């Protein structure tokens, strides 16, 4: 198969592998599975790593609580369980409302999202099966866990926003399924009566936009529309007390502005906005929800030039509101409380250690909850009382730290254009087996929370490093844009420079270095390996992008043109082909590439498993005779997102056992 694009002949000999269920693809996958099984059987640390990872995740894992109508909801994944279950909490007792393992004993169904009604009598749960992340929205009775009506099919991580004054109605969104009308819908729960037709409330304004919906303080309806993954969105707000919920009167918060903004209503009735407008690392502005356009915004929390503002919550009471702010400084979170009127200096809130704060949320009682984790500590939920006080674990207890502390240091490398790129290194001093991780996509920063996989690698004597490459969000929006679209090659160059620096500093030899990345990070590590085959001895690429001439035709690729560009544009196409791993491998036959482990998931609707299939075929065809192995670990009935814990442990153990075998990490090191 050959295409001619913008005057360039582009070979694609493995396009037949884009057909996931053809007889030829199934036979080819069978051969790859046998190759992988033979190789994995000889990896010495495979069993030990799996055992240690299983031990490290053997703890109860909670989500922050949500109180509705006097009932407290949360998810809890019991130690040793494969999936979290939705429960109601009454003191020390937890009662199960929905258990995906009971709903589907095969373990293929995941609980993707949930939201209780305003009175707490019902809860909407979203599930999907086989890793597709497309599923159904079900309304369950809280007291029995039984469905109260037929499910709504064809949703994908839909926002659900119950009406405060009408606990039998909620808004939800359709993104890429349904009857073709993408946008916000109003649903009225039938409770056994003949179902009423859902009302289409607001349509998406473009084919590649993503809608979102929230109801704030039981009064204000907020609708967002994100423009693909370009970190730009529009927002509108409506007062539900002022009209028909099926036909809201919209007020524009932000439209047609090159900025990313999200919003919340404080207990004081003020609209607070976290935004990149005039602040690449984000700031918080305040506005009147009745006149919310940017012309009326005032700054409530200024941008910090050295840290990104990753989250906020408006907490407290009407007369004593405060803004809780999470910033990240090179992977480490900071939590502060601010007076929104600026009358007092911010106060720092002590955290359990140097780690990551996520899911900062406020409740109607003025308190807030957040999740905390660090490299040595499993995620725990913490309660922050209103008006001060120290955070304390919820619902009680906490995680045990690792048996020995994890050392962390920061170094830096100089990329090809002279840019200084930070690199964080965990683990012991002196040379030794090292995994170098990078992501570098979609403006997402690397944060240092808990990973049983990483901790097991460190406990086995390895070193783990993270390159904060451009394209990620580690230094704000500008850092992202400097490694996006036609600049994406810079992210690859940053990773190569980080690898060269670790070797030059004596942290490891080339043979002891394994590059690791998933999804957009998988693209980076593959590009680095095929453009600079001597950069490392081995590579792990999990669910990667690889064929950048056709990424728009696979998975969610059409939504990602703001991140990577489009092959329809001659300039973008030239930039894509400058680093496309699949094509570089096709054109580099006979070279000595690093050992490569690719992982692919048959149900992957994001990157699409055609990418690792085609990349594996291209590398196997291109590698020099007798060269390092190219392996594909392929799974059915799972996708890009959440999966059963058992399957996650198996995947993590296999990947890091491969790294151990290739880098020389030996048992008892």
UniProtKB/TrEMBL annotation:
Peptidase S9A N-terminal domain: which residues? 2-363
> Where are the annotated segments for Disordered?
386-407
- List the top taxonomic levels of the source: Bacteria, Bacillati, Actinomycetota, Actinomycetes, Streptosporangiales
Per its record, how is this protein called by name?
A: prolyl oligopeptidase
Supply the enzyme class, top level: hydrolase
- What EC identifiers does the entry list? 3.4.21.26
Task: Report the transmembrane regions from the record.
Answer: none
Spans of biased composition, class Gly residues? 386-399
Pfam families hit by this protein: Peptidase_S9, Peptidase_S9_N
List the source organism. Nocardiopsis mangrovi
Catalysed reaction equations from the record: Hydrolysis of Pro-|-Xaa >> Ala-|-Xaa in oligopeptides
Query: What family does the entry list?
Result: Belongs to the peptidase S9A family.
Segments forming domain Peptidase S9 prolyl oligopeptidase catalytic: 450-661
Q: Which UniProt keywords apply?
A: Hydrolase, Protease, Serine protease
């Amino acid at each position: 198969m050959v295409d001619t694009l913008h005057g360039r002949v582009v070979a694609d000999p493995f396009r037949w592998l884009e057909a996931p269920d053809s007889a030829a693809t199934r036979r080819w996958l069978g051969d790859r599975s046998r190759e992988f099984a033979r190789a994995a059987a000889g990896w010495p640390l495979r069993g030990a790593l799996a055992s240690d990872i299983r031990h490290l995740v053997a703890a109860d894992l909670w989500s922050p609580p949500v109180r509705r109508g006097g009932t407290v909801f949360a998810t809890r994944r019991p130690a040793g369980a494969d999936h979290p279950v939705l429960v109601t909490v009454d003191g020390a007792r937890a009662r199960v409302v929905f258990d995906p393992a009971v709903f589907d004993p095969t373990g293929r169904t995941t609980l993707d999202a949930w939201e209780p009604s305003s009175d707490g009598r019902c809860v909407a749960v979203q599930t999907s099966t086989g890793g597709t992340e497309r599923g159904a929205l079900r309304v369950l009775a809280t007291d029995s866990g039984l469905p109260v009506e037929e499910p709504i099919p064809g949703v994908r991580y839909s926002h659900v926003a119950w009406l405060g004054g009408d606990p039998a109605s909620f808004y939800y969104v359709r993104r890429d399924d349904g009857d073709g009308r993408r946008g916000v819908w109003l649903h009225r729960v039938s409770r056994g009566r003949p179902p009423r037709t859902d009302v289409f409330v607001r349509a998406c304004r473009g084919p590649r936009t993503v809608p979102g919906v929230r109801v704030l303080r039981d009064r204000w309806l907020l609708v967002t529309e994100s423009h693909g993954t370009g970190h730009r969105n529009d927002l509108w707000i409506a007062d539900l007390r002022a009209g028909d919920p099926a036909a809201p009167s919209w007020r524009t918060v932000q439209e047609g502005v090159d900025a990313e903004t999200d919003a919340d209503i404080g207990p004081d009735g003020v609209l607070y906005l976290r935004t990149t407008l005039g602040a690449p690392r984000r700031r918080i502005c305040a506005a009147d929800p009745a006149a919310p356009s940017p012309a009326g915004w005032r700054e409530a929390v200024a941008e910090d030039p050295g840290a990104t503002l990753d989250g906020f919550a408006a907490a407290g009471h009407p007369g004593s509101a405060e803004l809780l702010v999470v910033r990240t400084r090179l992977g480490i979170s900071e939590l502060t409380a601010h007076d929104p009127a600026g009358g007092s200096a911010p106060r720092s809130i002590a955290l359990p250690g140097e780690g990551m704060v996520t899911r900062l949320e406020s409740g109607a009682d003025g308190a807030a909850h957040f999740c905390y984790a660090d490299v040595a500590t499993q995620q725990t939920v913490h309660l922050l009382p209103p008006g001060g006080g120290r955070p304390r674990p919820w619902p009680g207890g906490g995680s045990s730290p690792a048996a020995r502390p994890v050392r962390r240091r920061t170094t830096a490398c100089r990329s090809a254009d002279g840019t200084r790129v930070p690199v964080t290194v965990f683990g012991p001093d002196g040379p030794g087996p090292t995994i170098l991780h990078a992501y570098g996509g979609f403006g997402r920063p690397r944060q240092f929370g808990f990973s049983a996989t990483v901790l097991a690698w460190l406990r086995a004597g390895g070193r783990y490093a993270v390159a904060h490459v451009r394209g990620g969000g580690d230094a704000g929006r500008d850092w992202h844009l400097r490694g996006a679209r036609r600049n994406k090659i810079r992210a690859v160059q940053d990773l190569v420079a980080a690898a060269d620096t670790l070797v030059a500093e004596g942290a490891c030899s080339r043979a002891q270095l394994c590059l690791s990345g998933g999804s957009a990070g998988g693209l980076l590590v593959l590009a680095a390996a095929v453009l600079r085959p001597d950069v490392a001895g081995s590579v792990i690429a999990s669910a990667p992008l690889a064929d950048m001439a056709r990424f728009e035709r696979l998975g969610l690729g059409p939504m990602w043109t703001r991140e990577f560009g489009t092959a329809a544009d001659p300039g973008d196409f030239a930039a894509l082909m400058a680093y496309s791993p699949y094509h570089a491998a096709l054109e580099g036959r006979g070279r000595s590439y690093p050992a490569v482990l690719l992982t692919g998931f048959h149900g992957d609707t994001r990157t699409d498993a055609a990418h690792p299939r085609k990349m594996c075929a291209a590398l196997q065809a291109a590698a020099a005779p007798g060269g390092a192995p190219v392996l594909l670990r392929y799974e059915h009935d799972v996708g890009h997102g959440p999966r059963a814990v058992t399957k996650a442990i198996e995947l993590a153990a296999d990947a890091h056992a491969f790294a151990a075998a290739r880098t020389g990490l030996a048992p008892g090191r």
